[in-house]
Amino acid sequence: MSESERPAEGSRAVLPVSPASVDLPTGGVVRPMTRWGTPVMHEAQAPVTSYDDELASLVADMVATMYAADGVGLAACQVGVDLAVFVFDCPDEDGVVTRGVVCNPVLELPEGKDRRLDDGDEGCLSYPGAFVECARPDTATVRGQDAGGADVEYTGTGLLARCLQHETDHTAGTVFGDRVSARNRKKLRKQMESAAEDYPEGWPTTS
């Protein structure tokens, strides 16, 4: 997921960090971003069943790619891999950062009187340079496993809630453009086309 008001790299280190946050792996290789329209982006992803060195290497590459693209979250399909896993480094509505890895995510959203929608702007690293309003619940919980297979659970508000929903959607083959009106999809396309020179083929490896 991309964010138009993402904190600069240097400022992230000074934001408060949630106790639920984990240290993300380093040393990964930046991979080219897979774009909307590529089949892997629009299909439910294969479940993670092996928590091995291959998965660890993939997760490290995903983290490196997310940071190179200045994103707040990234799913495996966005680097062309059919696997239900995502990484994130994202602040909540209070500016508290949570970092994590979630395999086989299961999303829980509020219902009834507890359900409140946030219609803020949303963007996607696989459709770079474009942002439109996308209504989503303002609180979300995701459960799954970390890169070692241990159970994890994260709850977020504000941008973090949006990120957890956005990335879980990716593992189900859904892009946020599927959730907006035809008018807003047209707006997204125009924005992306206008920004195309800033995001050439191979981005962010070309940055």
TrEMBL record:
It catalyses: N-terminal N-formyl-L-methionyl-[peptide] + H2O = N-terminal L-methionyl-[peptide] + formate. One of its GO terms (biological process) is translation. It comes from the Bacteria. Binds 1 Fe(2+) ion. Gene3D superfamilies: Peptide deformylase. Keywords: Hydrolase, Iron, Metal-binding, Protein biosynthesis. The active site is at residue 167. Pfam families: Pep_deformylase. The keyword Hydrolase applies. Residues 187-207 are annotated as: Disordered. Fe cation binds at residues 124, 166, 170. Its cofactor is Fe(2+). Its EC number is 3.5.1.88. One of its GO terms (molecular function) is metal ion binding. NCBIfam families: pept_deformyl, PRK00150.1-3. Removes the formyl group from the N-terminal Met of newly synthesized proteins. Requires at least a dipeptide for an efficient rate of reaction. N-terminal L-methionine is a prerequisite for activity but the enzyme has broad specificity at other positions. Belongs to the polypeptide deformylase family. This is Peptide deformylase.
